[in-house]
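[stage:ingest] chain + small molecule (4AD)
[stage:ingest] validated
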Amino acid sequence: LKEDASLPKAVKVTIGNKDVELGDGANSKGARVKVSGRIHRLRAQKQATFITLIDGGGHLQCVLQAGDLTKTYDALTFAQGTSLTVYGEMRKVPEGQQAPDNRELHVDYYEVIGASPSDEDAITNKVSSAQNQWDAQMLDNRHLVLRGDHAASVMKLRAHVEWAFTKAYHEMKFVKVSPPALVQTQVEGGATLFKVPYYDEEAFLTQSSQLYLETVLPSLGNVYCIEKSFRAEKSLTRRHLSEYTHVEAELDFIDFDNLLEHLEEIICRVIDTVLSDAEMAAFLKELNPGFTRPSRPFMRMKYADAIEWLNKQDPPIPNEDGNPHVFGDDIAEAAERKMTDAINRPIFLTHFPVEIKAFYMKKDPNDLRVTESVDCLMPGVGEIVGGSMRMEGYDELLAAYDKQGIPAKDYYWYTDQRKYGTSPHGGYGLGLERFLAWMANQHTVRTTCLYPRFMGRCKP
Ligand code: 4AD
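[stage:predict] done
[stage:export] tokens:
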């Protein structure tokens, strides 16, 4: 195949560029362009071969009239994944037909850059669209699954959501920090710590950056971070990962109500930012057609009332041992999910008992049995946020370490916050994968991260 030297020189464009002049195939000529990408879909018909080309910026329909263009060895072995540069005139789609962005490239020349197999090794044979994307075979082939439209739109949505958090915090004047991932203290209990050798010492992968965020409130004011957290979760559930992206913030000189209001504000701002972007709104409409921004205020429900609610159902929703819930029980994932799905709107579940919550949580001055704590529960997923006010008193904190068998000496830098000018403060952590699972209506968090890590899987 040879490029026709009499044609105008082709201008290099990407598929995302929508300003290219379109011809009508008769009187007006469109721009002659060259576009590099990969074959996403291929349809060979008698009159012409149709290629849907992708380059990350969208989809482009390319038309190769049957003849010299379609008879080459390259053309006969075109397959999903083949990378190539196509040259030709950009035209409007003829009346009555459809193509992405209502345009198509009438190819006059192409160069194959990298062929792709069309035999038993073909991408379609490795990632059958009939299977769920969280199946083992699909996870083994995650690198190929990520080439698909569904996975790509979830990943683009994820990128936008993360940016929307950054934007919202910036507008609210929170300072971003980057705490360490290698630590020697725990935040959320020893059972889920990953141990790593650290020279001659032992270290852990961080479970949460919260304690570090607290240390910089005095000089930076309200702070946030978006970092990885690690949990050696021994359970294989739809919403547990070993490595996840944790959006955490800490606010100084606030009370518990301020914390709940801030949480509502940040969640709604992020959703508004996403919905105001036409491309993201379109992805969301595909992934979760019924999605709307939740109305404010979110429902507030105390832990004690949730226990009562669970017991009042017909039939009652039992605890993990199959018995009626009593005050002090953990509300397990299944019960929490049933309640959230039945109520079917975001819930701030608050005031958990001291015994089932982390050592650092502030007790409610009006009821010392419970903490000023909150979980934000979303339909379909359950808990997506965990937060609380933090213990302010020096002696109280030392007693709390003691009660949980935490060696106070390793936490001197955290305890010092109470020694050098304590303050009423609080914060939260939001699991980005769970937030996305809720927003994009994903069955599991395993499809909301690039390469999921959970018990039994640490590849690809
Ligand atoms: O409730 P958690 O354990 O709270 C903390 O870590 C606090 N120290 C955060 C803070 O106040 N700065 O975790 C917070 C959120 C959960 O609500 C959940 O969304 C997510 O982190 N999360 C997980 N996501 C995926 N896989 C796991 N194994 C997760 N564990 C927690």
